[in-house]
Design a protein that fits this description.
Blueprint (H helix, E strand, L loop, with lengths): L4 E2 L5 H6 L5 E6 L4 H16 L5 E6 L4 H6 L7 E6 L2 E7 L4 H15 L1
Parallel strand pairs: 1-3, 2-3
Antiparallel strand pairs: 2-4, 4-5
Amino acid sequence: MGKALEITDANFAEVVENSDKPVLVDFWAEWCGPCRMVGPVVEKIAEAYEGQAVVGKVDVDMNPETAMKFGIRSIPTLLFFRNGQLVDRVVGAVPQVTLEDKLKAQIAVEA
């Protein structure tokens, strides 16, 4: 794993809900083809926005509670949080610029 944090059922509240920065969470699974396409994009975003935002990944097979809590029915699903609250979501493989624009919007709100 690279710069993106591994987020689990156990640490979700600490990492996401208690963060003082905007958070992007990628819900994925090892067997999911589109997830493997989005994974490197999420890593690039984690590196590019280090210090400005928290970027993490939740393996839905290993962390079913968190996936259920947010009604994740298809993956990849990427959720955006600000002040511990869900503020936006993207379902499916999308271009890096789409994710960056949504994350930048949350960073701008914080500024």
